[in-house]
Structure prediction request, 252 residues.
Amino acid sequence: MLQNIRVVLVNTSHPGNIGGAARAMKNMGLSRLVLVQPLDFPAADASARASGADDVLDGAIVVDTLEQALAGCSLAIGTSARDRSMPWPMLDPRECGVQSVARAAAGEEIALVFGREHAGLTNDELQRCHFHVHIPSNPDFSSLNLAAAVQVLAYEVRTAWLAAQGAPAKVEKVDASDELATLDEMELFYEHLEKTLVDISFLDPEKPKHLMARLRRLYGRSSVNRSEMSILRGILTETQKVARGDAHKRKD
Ligand code: SAH
Prediction:
């Protein structure tokens, strides 16, 4: 079940941190590492710091975009060393562990997303995540080393996983249409929504005013399932037809 939880490191500069993260993961029983455009990998420093977690490094998947890293996930949790301008649904590290484990146990794919050493995650990257988690550090010195931040969240995942061992397993086979839409499906929906809102002049591409970010936050907390997603996409398609003037006339 822990194999449903992946750790995503975005644009890491120091290979030593990738090794440190791999070690932290293996200590806590996590094995799936995804690297989005690492600056220097594979590297001797990564292997040195992994000290024995070479299997996690060898199995690491390197991709070009965060979107590719999140493929197949229905829950993404982004980490942030500080508060951002746009308020977003937050989890504390403990809740992050509990949610990740509960949803991984239900067969969902989960991503814990970590940012660059110097700049963290961009707002755009954070807005692709359903929740944000902040490790409650000293406000005057809030930024942990990347591998240390991975360690804290991986420990919380392990704690939640150990607590769940005693609890009876909830294995309910869900209907495919009840499965949550994945992040890739949500991305296609957001593209379609944005185009439609431009078509009906609700969204001015010159003055977007955070509209898409607000809508991402709204739909992101709605746990949209597959059948609801087809309804939403259907509504957009019909709206675009009306906007183009080629909708079927309704027969009264
Ligand atoms: N200067 C950057 C700090 C990045 S630290 C910034 O202000 O955002 C590198 C990464 O470690 C962060 O992107 C995040 O993934 C993780 N991290 C560091 N401190 C954290 C904290 N207090 N809570 C959650 N994640 C943290």
Summary: The pocket of S-adenosyl-L-homocysteine is lined by residues 79-82, 114-115, 117-121, 134-135, 137, 142-144, 146, 149 (CB under 6 Å). Strands lie at 5-10, 32-36, 61-63, 75-79, 90-91, 110-114, 131-133. The longest helix spans residues 146-166.
